[in-house]
Amino acid sequence: MKLTFVIPVYISNALHLDFTRQTLKSIQTSHDHKVIIVNNFCAPAFRPDLERLATCDWQLVDNPKGNILASAWNLGIKMSFSGDAGSPSDYCLLLNNDLILHPKCLDNLVTFATNHPKFLIWSASEWANARTLSQAKMTQSFSFHPHFSCFMVAPKTIEVVGYFDEHFTMGYFEDNDYHTRILHAGYQAAATNSAKFYHYGSRTINIDDNLKIEGKYHYQKNRAYFAKKWGVDIHGRAFDPPEAILKAIKPTSSP
């Protein structure tokens, strides 16, 4: 199986760089793979350090659209399946750069996907404690609530749903939109409990005061765009099962 791992990064300080190192260090798989680090932003002082992270198996590319998560994901996916990062991959895994992966996370996620080809997104599940991650209990159960901090797509995903909507700026609601589009197309996404990771959570924003202020603006902007696109404001709302959102959107809405 050929895999490509795509990791968008925003590096404005040493902590951002350290989180990225931790994520890269935790990548373990028995499959043939490449790693693409998509640079959404890097302060000049840290550019040499970021470049040193790239090896023969790790490739650094700059996102021409800047700090837009959807465009970073799209860029990595296109490189993965077009063969721009080598031979075309069977799966593209998209990871936040503030994760620690269980040693079996990635291989178990691939196994889950191959055993459940009817889904269009396959994701791992979050474990709450980094110190006990190695002892995380893993089962074959799964939920229909994918986790977009560590998820995987296949060429079929893009054929059916298309790419992420880059009108969602920075990094809010593009995942909700994509999941809604999957459901709208009559498919599902799932998160397996056989693959675990620890997520520091929002560390990129929380340790950068300027980015935190900017994030509040983009959150509201993207919230309004989602509501306009689908006819429903999902702020503070949870849909269980996920396809319940289809009853809330306007009948004329479309991806």
List keywords for this structure.
nine-stranded mixed β-sheet, 9 helices, 36% helix, globular, 255 residues, Spore Coat Polysaccharide Biosynthesis Protein SpsA, Chain A
Question: Outline of this structure?
Answer:
The chain is of the alpha/beta class and 255 residues long. It has helices spanning 14-25, 47-52, 69-82, 105-115, 155-161, 174-184, 203-206, 209-230, 245-248; strands at residues 2-11, 32-42, 58-62, 91-95, 99-101, 121-127, 142-143, 150-153, 189-199. Helix content is 36%, strand content 23%.
Helix fraction, binned, reads: 25-40%
The CATH class label is Alpha Beta
* Shape, principal axes of CA atoms: globular
Oligomeric category: single chain
Element order: H for helix, E for strand: EHEHEHEEHEEEHHEHHH
Radius of gyration: 17 Å
Structural class: alpha/beta
Mean pLDDT: 93
Fill in the CATH topology: Spore Coat Polysaccharide Biosynthesis Protein SpsA, Chain A
CATH architecture: Alpha-Beta Complex
Can you put this structure into words, describing what you see?
By secondary structure, the chain is of the alpha/beta class. It has a single domain (about 1-250), classed as Spore Coat Polysaccharide Biosynthesis Protein SpsA, Chain A. About 35% of the residues lie in helices and about 25% in strands. It has nine helices and nine strands. The protein has helices at about 15-25, 45-50, 70-80, 105-115, 155-160, 175-185, 205, 210-230, 245-250, and strands at about 1-10, 30-40, 60, 90-95, 100, 120-125, 140-145, 150-155, 190-200. Strands 1, 2, 3, 4, 5, 6, 7, 8 and 9 form a nine-stranded mixed beta sheet that branches.
